[in-house]
Amino acid sequence: MLAAAPPQEQKQMLGERLFPLIARMHPDLAGKITGMLLEIDNSELLHMLESTESLKAKVG
Known about the structure:
The protein is mainly alpha-helical. It is built from four helices and no strands. Helix 1 (7-25) packs parallel to helix 3 and helix 3 (42-50) crosses helix 4. It is globular and about 30 Å long. The protein starts with 6 loop residues before the first helix and ends with a helix. One of its GO terms (cellular component) is cytoplasm. Pfam families: MLLE (PF00658). Residues 1-60 form the PABC domain.
């Protein structure tokens, strides 16, 4: 599904999956942090979704 979507839709889908994970770590900044992370390459974002440790290392 993700691979078949246009790039902007891919970012939207990834953002929707990342936001709740980030909100648990930084509830007040989740929107801003998610937006900043969406500047990163999609393959790295997918890795962060699969690896909580990778996401924590990036977000802090």
